[in-house]
Amino acid sequence: MSTVTQNGTELAALCSSNNNTQVSDDLALDVFQWSQGVQVGQYYNLQQVSLLGSLPPCDLRVILAPLDIQFNYETRGLPALFKYYEFPESFILERKHSVTQAFGTNEWNDGAMCSWLHFLCKNIHIDRTSSPGNPDKCEIVNVIPNTIALRQADYSWLRSGYLLKRVPRVSANTSINGSSSSSATVQPLPDLVTLICFGAPDSLKQRCNRLLRGQLWENFLSDPYALFTMVIEELFFQLDHSAWNLSDAFGTIEHRILTSVDRPGQAADHVDFVSLHTIAKAITYLNEGVDAMLLTLEDMAATYDEKMSQPATTSAINLKAEIRHRRGLFRSTRLRLQSLEKRMSNIINLSFNLVTQQDSRVVQRDSSVMKIIAVVTLFFLPSSTIATIFGTQFFNFGDFGNGTPEFKVSSYFWIFWLVSICTTGAAFVVWWFYYRRIKRVIQKRDVARQSGV
């Protein structure tokens, strides 16, 4: 079963992506499978991909595999799993490029088909460990080791990939009385449905454990896409949990800033613009994840409509209703993120106003000091000017030997005024030419900017 686009190049690139890791059959797998006529499903913990062939026949199988984003010692068996189930090249290519949104389908000549999707979303971890100095602590923490993170930053991501494969099986011919005869009837066998999950959340494994008992799993045989709706619901819980964590972390910062408004001159000291920026960036990432899942659901619904038989069965109608419901869940999270964006915008504007208010208070205080200095200077300026002039050699005070006080002015006193007037005029002339030159340069720059040069 191969297509034109499946030439093995992406799989070969995956095997050669890390020369220090040898491709092997070893891979930890959690396998859940169900069979018609068996009351309880089976669970297997396998350590090799080749052991999948030794499992008993089944109608439905769910495989939980490690995250396929890195090729290392723990995931060295991924190429063997890709070969065993003949994964499409597009799935491996999208994995390599860490796509945010993708929903693809592929069909083979023998009637087998597969569909897949990828999930990528920002992860938000919260530290609520209280302390005497911070009883209401609620901060975003980074869980990636050996990294230096900004305040309120988490560099981890929620990643997972899912491939659903359906393989038709040959029908069995049996007679009415159980023996082969010319009056044999055809008993159609259900398609073999397999869901392979990479990096799935723990809640999905718990959900599969609950499905081991009972017959609810049979609904997935008639409509295998119902497995995707189950997966997407768990992905919604992951994304929505991150959105609530982000909202709680922002609420703490918002409360701290609002309570500081009553302390003029000190409110700006409580504004942490780095934290506000990292939270705003996280909101953008979460919005991207929500929009990606909404697009995935749209593609899934369109693909299902193309494959759906007419007239629509009850199970098909119910599945389309479930897809609409999943859309509503993600839209509700998007509405919450939009509200969070508006709150963020209000707090940022308030923070800038608080900083501006504090700066204006500082400027006002400095201007008051300068005003006092200017008043004192103006008060002493006339007397200091007169004292300076009379302290020159152009004025003589004394009795000059005859005992009578006398006051004499030098005949060269005009030189003082000549030099003073000339130097003052020269200073004004130099300032005037410099001012005109700067003004022309600014005007030329404005003209050039307006003309687009």
TrEMBL record:
SUPFAM superfamilies: Magnesium transport protein CorA, transmembrane region (SSF144083). The chain crosses the membrane at residues 372-392, 412-435. Pfam families: CorA. It is found in: Membrane. GO terms for cellular component: membrane. Signal peptide: none annotated. Its main location: membrane. It is a multi-pass membrane protein. This is Cora-domain-containing protein. One of its GO terms (molecular function) is metal ion transmembrane transporter activity. It comes from Lophium mytilinum. Keywords: Membrane, Transmembrane, Transmembrane helix.
